[in-house]
Amino acid sequence: MTMPDERTRALLWAGSLLIDIAQDQSLPLSLRRRAVTIARHFPTIEDVAWIVGSLRDSVLSIGMASPENALPEEADRDFTPLRHSTRLRWPGDD
Questions:
Q1: pTM (two decimals)
Q2: pLDDT grade, residue 87 (50/70/90)?
Q3: Residue 86 and residue 39 in contact, taking contact as beta carbons nearer than 8 Å
Q4: Is 53:8 a contact under the CB 8 Å cutoff?
Q5: Which InterPro entries does the record cross-reference, listed alphabetically (predicted)?
Q6: What is the per-residue DSSP string for 38-70?
Q7: Residue 61: what pLDDT?
Q8: Which of 16, 14, 7 is nearest to 65 (CA)?
Q9: Tens digit of pLDDT for each residue in 37-76?
């Protein structure tokens, strides 16, 4: 059974994975472009916090924990979460 903090963490890790894919020059250009396209519409850490706060007591609640409770301290993180301020460049023909 997936716990709320695990669900939140998985969503944030997926956003981070999109960043990693988009910036990895060793991957095919088409894959990096697809990662940038998806990241533009993927929930950011701020979106997740808003969803959790807005739906906590709602019938629509999907059982998520706040990012602060789901993630280790920032110093202990080995990934960069997708944020509203994240700006991924469109991969060009390098």
A1: 0.83
A2: very high
A3: yes
A4: no
A5: BPSL0761-like (IPR049723)
A6: HHTTSPPHHHHHHHHHHHTTSTT------HHHH
A7: 63
A8: 7
A9: 999 999 999 999 998 888 776 655 678 888 988 877 665 5
| Backbone phi, psi, residue 24, to 5° | -85, 100
The identity of residue 12, as a single letter, is: L
Q: Is the dihedral of CA 42, 48, 5, 72 positive or negative?
A: positive
For the record, the structure tokens of 24 come out as 């990895």
d(CA 88, CA 85): 10
| Lookup result for tokens 């990934």 | 79
- In order of 34, 41, 58, 59, the CA distances from 81 in angstroms are 18, 14, 26, 28
**Span between the terminal Cα atoms of the chain, in Å:** 44
Distance, CA of 80 to CA of 16 (rounded, Å):
6
The pLDDT assigned to 74 comes to 64
Q: How many other CB atoms are there within 10 angstroms of residue 82's CB atom? A: 26
